[in-house]
Input
Amino acid sequence: MLSIIEKFRAIYNKKDTSEDLRFLALQSCHTANFLLHELNSISHQHNCNNGTAVDIGTGLGIIPLILHSQGKYHNYIGIDIDNKGLMIAKRLFEENNFNPICADVYAMPLKNAISDILFARYVLQHVSRIEFFLSELKKIMKTDSKIVIIDVEDDMNVFYPELPPETKNVFASYEKFQKQCGGDRNISKKLPYFLFQTGFKNVEIKPFTSTFFVSKKYCRDYFKQTKDAFLALSTELELVKDELFKHKFISPSDFHRGLNSCLVYLNSSDSIFISRTEFLITAMK
Ligand SMILES: C[S@@+](CC[C@H](N)C(=O)[O-])C[C@H]1O[C@@H](n2cnc3c(N)ncnc32)[C@H](O)[C@@H]1O
Output
């Protein structure tokens, strides 16, 4: 796992890579161990080592990379509309069994049932026509194969003490922006319904909560820990900030004020508790 994280860190440190891909690399570093824990909770078919895993909205290919490191599945297909990310994912794979496909799921070029297991992490939160999207995914899934969705549920995030209003304002602008694009940061609780509507069966949900608690009195590396927490919180916002400014959801000065207040909040509190819950949802075709 460490070598996978190092690969993503190297991408983040390459200043000539585009900002959005660098931050996706950073998000991959921050979430890799948690994702591993989530993936380890999935039951796979006994003959999965010969099978094909498809990752929708693969980004930099973190899911295929982890599955490959575990010797699970034989072929990996990463589908994404962003070709630059796919090219990096292809390079990160040392073997030749990662096939990148640059495509929009809404205009899926594949028509055959090819996947023995299909993943979509942090993608459905961006999707406007969920039922159509899911039915396109279903077409490339083999009969009785599994779909694994991992996504957010912001209603279940807890910050103690409460975030400063300027920081809440930044999060709210992000939520509004995602909503206007047809997305939903509280998508997880709605997915069982959409899966059912599109004819999936055996829908199962598993919540995964990451908690962060530090106290100045007891943590010697309090500042390092809060700095890491800040990076983890702000990475996603950095990914979308240009869009937020372009659509006037927040001004650059309010955005930076909000992030600055977040840093002050993290450093000035005596103890901080942050809890984030996301859901892993599986269903069968
Ligand atoms: C937040 S990233 C998640 C990347 C990766 N799944 C991960 O867990 O790190 C969402 C990805 O979904 C891709 N995406 C969004 N809508 C898509 C669509 N309609 N078809 C294909 N890819 C899409 C984006 O280009 C982006 O790479």
